[in-house]
Amino acid sequence: MKIAVLPGDGIGPEIVAQAVKVLEALRSDGLKIEMEHAHIGGAGYDAAKDPLPEATLKLSKESDAVLLGAVGGYQYDNLPRPMRPEQGLLRIRKGLGLFANLRPAMVYPELVNASTLRPDIVSGLDIMILRELTGDIYFGQPRGIRTLENGERQGFDTMHYSESEVRRVAHVGFQIAMKRNKKLCSVDKANVLDTSMFWREIVTEVAKEYPAVALSHMYVDNAAMQLVRAPKQFDVILTGNIFGDILSDEASMLTGSIGMLPSASLDENNKGLYEPCHGSAPDIAGKDIANPLATILSVAMMMQYTFGRPDIAQRIETAVRKVLQQGLRTGDIYEEGKQKVGCAAMSDAVVAAL
Ligand code: NAD
Ligand code: IPM
Ligand code: MN
Description:
Keywords: Amino-acid biosynthesis, Branched-chain amino acid biosynthesis, Cytoplasm, Leucine biosynthesis, Magnesium, Manganese, Metal-binding, NAD, Oxidoreductase. By secondary structure, the chain is of the alpha/beta class.
């Protein structure tokens, strides 16, 4: 198992160090794990004036999987766009062809009270958001800032989805739904956007190949509302890049904290990049208070999807559950009566439970 480790910025290095502890524990248990570190994001800019240094992309391509922390920081916010940390992330996703981004939102029974929503709304929740990751307004050309004939300046971006892009992610969505509760809700804005009208047409076509899956469509504004009104109505949510970005952050709060939400970004062959859904959290960086569980659970997804070891994924998830049962909580999921611990102590407990 050759894994490229890209800590990135902010809390990235802290949380990735915790996930690496888990990988090291698995290695001393007999798994053949090789890890190599490289820079991405602001760290890439600092080291090589490039948010995705060539060596990082090369290492990632040569590895079976990539473990990533997060990118971004205040000190980089005014750089020209190609130099910004976020570009490093977008380029590695595109460069590795990682079009299918799986963002599962699961509520652990131990955390039903950590959610800002009522326990009866969220308990038992288990939904999978499948976000298309290499298309949409994120990558559409042309884009930029221009001056109009009347002299006024204007910012602009282009949203588009080609048929093959929609088709391949739709197939992934239906295949995931087949292994779950066989319900897929495609989320779009087809009442306004041509891109979405086209998306809906293609998804409906692909659905014919999966008659066992119940397909529904929902407008994204309604979906945002339904996610907090009655989230358990969903099984798989299939959506585009920007809607998926927003809805997955929203869904994270059903689970208690964005610090709990892992992700897998896969190519056609299940080679993948694994990262928490949250960002570099510069407001809490360097304080040993970040929640490392999203990153540790991303390692579980890596074992399942890239390495075909659901047994190890299960072991990691069980260890996380055990630590939550012991009452350990980082600040973001803390509730009265529990034991508040830092980032490193939390992962030490997971390793012990493992
Ligand atoms: P963020 O996700 O970094 O933080 C949002 C809030 O959640 C903050 O209050 C933060 O402290 C908290 N939070 C996030 N992760 C946490 C964790 N593991 N434990 C406890 N609390 C946690 O989003 P933001 O503040 O909008 O963005 C900060 C920077 O991160 C920006 O530069 C942004 O571009 C970048 N970003 C990167 C990624 C990524 O690398 N995948 C994702 C989102 C944002
Ligand atoms: C995420 C982040 C990224 C995105 C940014 C940092 C480019 O918000 O991974 O969710 O928008 O995809
Ligand atoms: Mn996001």
